[in-house]
Amino acid sequence: MKAREKEWAINARGDMALLDQVTRASQGPFHLIHPESFADNLGAFQQVLRDRNVSGRVYFGKKANKAGAWLREVAALGSAVDVASVPEFVHTLANGVRGEDIGVTGAAKSNDLLWLANRHGATVAIDALDEIERAITIATPADPLRVLLRVLPPNSPHSRFGLNPADLSAALRRCKEADQHIVVEGFSFHLDGYAVQPRAELAAALIDLCEETRRQYGFPCFAISIGGGFACPYVDEDDWQGFKERLHPSQFHAGKSFNHFYPYHQSLTGAAMLDAILQTVIGPTTLAQKLIAAKVVLYLEPGRALLNGAGMTVFPVQGFKCNAEHGIVTVAGLSMSLSEQWKNSEYLPTPILVLRGADRPQEPVRAAIGGSSCMEYDVLTWRKILFPAAPRYGDLIVYPNTAGYQMDKNESAFHQLPLPPKIVVTQQDDGFTWRMDQQ
Questions:
Q1: E-strand stretches of 180-300
Q2: Of the residues 69, 229, 283, 370, which has the fewest C-beta atoms closer than 10 A?
Q3: What is the mean pLDDT of residues 311-329?
Q4: Claim: this prediction has a pTM higher than 0.85
């Protein structure tokens, strides 16, 4: 399926000088990242909040990509970062984001992470009663810990994340007992999927919970977090629908079949999805109006949506051969550098062959794409891609729009191969400059 590429990506892919320089420097696969696109996406979310007169904060979900370049953009735009480990926290601080602009989520936090969050004034999403007890021990009256209590979604009783109603009541009572150590600033939730209505409805319920908690316990309760799950538009609707209608194992190498794909086309994505959430009618008013009336600040934690169109991955071709009715391209690098494989799925935006070297016959061929390991299942693309010519050693295969989760979620140095570096590209006049990302 043809990817929706941003102009910078098309220009960078066509800039042979850029690709040649980075290919020689990296001697293997590499990722190109474009912080300006990230900044544009972040700015669009912030603009929606302003347009709807909603006080809010956009927390970049750091787990979606490890590059430091994104964090510099967050700092420059006065935004925030969502982390879930000590190394993520330290890396965020090192790139100019202040502690009070960091949110700590994830499952049960280590004591070291709770201590670091407390020292730097970060906000922590508390997920369990035993976590509260550890937080009380770590925090002090001089430096109480700022927390959001994470609520178990009523329609997701088996979720790993959130306090059930009984535990939530117990948590509020315990926080009140230890109110010199804990400040409850509000509530949060985690929802799977990309639906607008459930997020708006649960957000409205948390606003009511904030008001009730202020009255009953005296906590400030001025914020709610609706988490992430903001969709991305990878491909056009016609391509996506056509793919699903024609889906058959014969399209894939070795008759491979898949039970799940990320929804690569969705109608409401990114900042437009946030606007739809805010404009959802809840009772007599919209969610935005309900937030304003209750004086509640909205936190959100997009990851993938902020990285949409902000990066691509390049693999040098190491060989090509034909088996039966289709070919096999082998590239330098491993399938683990496209993390969709981790979920036994397939990254569907179609990779692009960049021809290098002497001219050759333009005879289209179909081929799957394998990694350079000795494992049969090391396949980057099982789908038989139609290439304009037979790939050969020295060509490049470019995977578009990989910054969100694909680049490093499951990367591996198997065979002692180096991890693909991240190359920061910046447009300058009619070309690009580049540098290694400083993590």
A1: 182-188, 223-225, 281-282, 285-286, 297-300
A2: 283
A3: 94
A4: yes
